[in-house]
Structure prediction request, 303 residues.
Amino acid sequence: MLLIDYVGNTPLVRLDRIARGRVPSGVEIWAKLEWFNPGGSIKDRAARAIILAAERAGIPEGARLLDASSGNTGIAYGMLCAARGHRLTLCIPSYANDERKHLVRAYGVELIETDAREGSDGAIRRAQALAAAHPDRFVYLDQYSNPANPGAHEHGTALEIWSQTAGRVTHFVAGLGTSGTFVGTSRGLRAKNAHIQCVSVQPTGPGHGLEGLKHMATAIVPKIYDPTIANADLAAPSAASFELLRALAKEEGILAGFSSGAALWGAIEVARTLTAGVVVTVFPDSGERYVSQASQTAMGSLC
Prediction:
């Protein structure tokens, strides 16, 4: 098998200890641990689907693949482009942590850092400008508009959750970044059972510190985002999300990344309203990618 064939089929684990005392005893909370993908995050799924779609469409000889990313998608692109023999240019906000920049560069990616004050939207605008100015030089992958992004989850993540819960899943909760995970997984699960409740989670506002998530009201809204899919949309407070991350590490032995705290907060909020059910969420990456960054945020030490 090739490296690309190992993307997906990540473990789904039950969060017994974190649920105890926080949610009714008849409710289960489960989480997909996405850092078991070969590139270390859930973004391997979308990157795989997007790159394969670009290959099927045809990549002109000498052209570079191009996209914007705040980190994990860039790492996934870098890994898979190296494995597939493609050259990649990535626009990334300068505030992205050092771990991520080092990983991207290790794969031979051309990195263009954009103004931190413009956030991930600034990186998107730079990639769009490059693609428009040099159409013969770049193949713009555009993870925010590419239907292969949610498609990877509709035909992958959702089917895994359905199988791993033996069809028992009643609620799906996920954070909104590109929105590919939430939109695609929700569609895939609803195709199996139209009664599954799907709940999206986003930050309470801009400047939230929950890296990887978007506050849709103040950001460039991805074209793949469909707000009508959600049965409810929750606003996760940053401080409570960080506190749950610390509890997750100490009570479950799971060291997850920043956006996982918001996903867990959302899963608990949903579970609290139930008397019985199986609530499934997704932890996009590991906390190991945020160690140098954690002490500079409201999260404090991961340890």
Observations:
- The first helix runs from residue 16 to 19.
- The chain has two domains: 3-36+153-294, 43-140.
